[in-house]
Amino acid sequence: RGAGEGSHGFTRHQAPQRRGHGCGGHVRRWVRRQLDLEILMRIYSKLSLKERFEKKISYEPMSGCWLWVGATYRNGYGEIGGGGKFGRTLLAHRVAWELSNGPIPTGLYIDHLCHNILCVNPSHLRLATPGENMHNSCIPITNKSGFKGVSWDSPRSKWAAYINKNRKCYNLGRFDTPEEAHAAYCEAARRLHGKFANYGEVS
């Protein structure tokens, strides 16, 4: 996981030992640095979650995305400390939604309309069930056809089209070209996934 707020531990920094003449200045500089860092951390800890959040946004005028420039999880999503001595780490895009719209209902996810997982612009976010969130997923890195919902059926030497809905996988048929198979997927996605349909946008 990426580094979060409240992770700075001054005990990790041990003062350099004085080994002879001329080291006093080095020790004093080290002490000043530690004091300056402690002062900054005290100031930062007094900021509200909203104030800390807003300090970690880079605005992209072309796309309209608000890009998170703070710490991130290993999966690429932004993170921010919840505050307090034992504050837990929070997902930045969920914080963005709650700061703008209020609490997220239990069991719901926050889905990215722009498909940029670092975006925290509330207008690019929406509530979604776990299934709806999966419908809007981009092409997985394991996909070798270049088209979402399409794979090569070696035994039949055809392109297979398939789609998932409510944890069930539906076979949409076999086709001569990946483009034909993808067209079948897109038609099914419009019908089954509705406004959460994703036809293969790249994140």
SSE order, as H and E? HHEEEEHEEHEEEH
Helix share, percent? 25-40%
Radius of gyration in whole Å, from Cα? 24 Å
Overall, the morphology is elongated
Helix and strand composition category = alpha+beta
What is the strand arrangement across the widest sheet? 7-8-9
Largest sheet: 3 strands, antiparallel
Q: How much of the sequence is in beta strands?
A: 15-25%
Average per-residue pLDDT, rounded, comes to 84
The overall strand count is 9
Distance between termini?
20 Å
What is the overall number of helices?
Answer: 5
- Name the poorly predicted regions: 1-13
In short:
With 203 residues, this protein is an alpha+beta fold. It has helices spanning 24-45, 49-54, 92-101, 130-135, 178-192; strands spanning 57-59, 66-68, 79-81, 89-91, 109-112, 125-128, 150-153, 158-165, 168-175.
What can you tell me about this protein's structure?
The protein is of the alpha+beta class and 203 residues long. 29% of the residues lie in helices and 20% in strands. The protein is built from five helices and nine strands; from the N terminus they run ααββββαββαβββα. The protein has helices spanning 24-45, 49-54, 92-101, 130-135, 178-192, and strands at 57-59, 66-68, 79-81, 89-91, 109-112, 125-128, 150-153, 158-165, 168-175. The strands form four sheets. The protein has a three-stranded antiparallel β-sheet with strand order 7-8-9, with helices on one face. The protein has a two-stranded antiparallel ribbon with strand order 1-2. The longest helix is centred in the first third of the chain and has 22 residues, at 24-45. The two termini are 20 Å apart. Residues 1-13 have low confidence and may be disordered.
